[in-house]
Design goal:
Blueprint: E1 2-4, E2 24-28, H1 41-46, H2 51-56, E3 77-81, H3 90-93, H4 97-100, E4 106-112, H5 116-124, E5 129-130, E6 136-137, E7 143-144, E8 163-168, H6 177-200, E9 206-209, E10 213-214, H7 219-232, H8 243-249, E11 255-256
Parallel strand pairs: 1-2, 2-3, 3-4, 4-8, 8-9
Antiparallel strand pairs: 5-6, 6-7, 10-11
Helix pairs in contact: 5-6
């Protein structure tokens, strides 16, 4: 098992090694140690890119069908924490992990952003359901125009997934209580609709939706170290799927959304 703690101010170098025995991986904030994407023209012009992206973005991702196999050929559990903005957002890099680690069955996304529901649908390849009137409905049962169906992704990006745990982000304190409440309720509803579609579809994956929470700035580094040790001792770590565990077991509880 491996835990990678990262800072938004210190970008880690690309690691060009395989990890054939690694079974669990947790990434705080970024995955640039293992993934490089080509910078866009806007990024280069604005100076947002990193010199290593220009020189290393063309490094091919090891193909699982190659003679050496995938980079993380035995990885089964992947936990990513959206701790800070990435140079290349998770929506761009997470699909690459289906090639880097094609055997992953358990995925957890903590502090996920507002695009969590659409990304979840893409990962699991959720298809729109026909409505009683003969039309097509999206993840939440709303009618979808036929010309928008081409934008949907019926083929799962990560077909090996069997359990996905998502915990969406909570808006910061400076946002009004009313706006936070509306946002939390709407996002939770969208995620639960997506989870329901998943359970009623042909997908073999199960989706668990945890409440959004607000944490102290040092919460995740401390908690991830604790969970790493817990897993080394045979405990459940972050994979317990338990709201009570999320709220109190760590001793670093956030402020849960009141029901």
């Amino acid at each position: 098992t491996l835990l990678v703690l990262q800072s938004k101010d210190i970008r880690l170098p690309l690691v060009r090694y395989r990890f054939p025995a690694l079974r669990e991986l947790t990434l705080l904030g970024d995955d640039r140690m293992f993934v490089r994407l080509p910078p866009t023209l806007e990024e280069r012009t604005a100076g947002w890119t990193d010199p290593s992206d220009v020189h290393l973005y063309h490094v091919p991702i090891p193909d699982a069908r190659g003679s050496l196999g995938a980079l993380f050929s035995s990885l089964k559990r992947l936990h990513i924490v959206y701790a800070f903005p990435k140079l290349h957002p998770w929506e761009q890099t997470l699909p690459q992990w289906a090639v880097l680690a094609p055997a992953v069955t358990h995925l957890r996304k903590s502090q996920d952003n507002v695009r969590v529901a659409s990304m979840l649908a893409d990962l699991l390849g959720l298809r729109p359901d026909p409505s009683p009137s003969g039309g097509i409905k999206n993840d939440c049962g709303e009618d979808v125009e036929e010309d928008s169906l081409e934008k949907m992704h019926p083929t799962p990006i990560y077909p090996s997934l069997r359990l996905v745990i998502v915990q969406p982000i909570r808006l910061p304190n400076w946002v009004s209580d009313t706006s936070k409440r509306d946002f939390d309720v709407a996002l939770r509803r969208h995620l639960e609709c997506t989870a329901q579609v998943c359970s009623e579809s042909e997908s073999e994956a199960w989706v668990v939706v945890l409440r959004s929470r607000r944490y102290r700035h040092d919460h995740w580094p401390l908690r991830l170290k604790w969970e790493w040790r817990d897993r080394m001792r045979g405990g459940g770590g972050c994979w317990t799927e338990d709201e009570l565990d999320e709220s109190g077991r760590r001793g670093l509880a956030g402020e849960p959304l009141q029901q």
